[in-house]
Design goal:
By secondary structure, the protein is an alpha/beta fold. It is built from 6 helices and 6 strands; from the N terminus they run βαβααβαβαββα. It has helices spanning 23-46, 65-72, 78-84, 106-113, 125-138, 155-167, and strands spanning 7-12, 51-56, 91-95, 117-123, 142-144, 150-151. It comes from Thalassobacillus cyri.
């Protein structure tokens, strides 16, 4: 396993408005993993691991954290967004589709940072996290996807995705 200094923590789609079919279910599941996501952030800070947010751009096509944050902020997700919001020095990238690698600058950033191991956290575990993990595996990154730091609308779907990541993509899914 790569040393912590060769790692990056990637939060996937955590700046989210949850205004879609089954969004309330996903929001509820995301609140359940918030303590683990915060523990990952503390772990990253303690080990000087870069934190990268890769996020939907909500049709703006701008990697403008403030604009996306304000677009997403609502009564239901306010506590979540306030807690998980990027800190000064964190990276914020946008993506047009499910994988964090697809048509984004993620791979270039990881190369510049010398990253060999990705720590993935976020939503939805059975879609964007899984597809990002798949693309990372194809690029030969080591993966840690803590089982208690990803969420999907349906916990069974999330568990299935974690099983796929562990068995097929060789991800470590041990909890934080």
């Amino acid at each position: 396993m790569a040393a912590p200094e060769q790692s990056a923590l990637i939060y996937i789609d955590v700046i989210n408005d949850f205004q879609f079919n089954q969004g309330k279910k996903l929001l509820d599941q995301t609140y359940r993993i918030l303590p683990s996501m915060m523990n990952l952030k503390q772990y990253a800070h303690a080990h000087e691991i870069p934190i990268i947010y890769i996020n939907d751009h909500y049709a703006s096509w701008r990697a403008d954290l403030q604009q996306i944050y304000q677009h997403c902020l609502n009564k239901g997700n306010k506590k979540l967004l306030e807690a998980i919001r990027p800190d000064e020095g964190d990276y914020f990238l946008i993506k047009p589709k499910h994988s964090g690698f697809y048509q984004s600058s993620l791979q270039s950033l990881l190369y510049e940072l010398g990253v060999k191991r990705l720590i993935l956290s976020g939503i939805a575990g059975n879609i964007c996290v899984l597809f990002t993990a798949n693309d990372a595996y194809m690029r030969e990154y080591e993966l840690w996807v803590p089982e208690n730091a990803t969420a999907s609308n349906d916990p069974n779907d999330n568990q299935y995705a974690l099983t796929m990541m562990e068995n097929v993509l060789k991800a470590d899914v041990s909890p934080i």
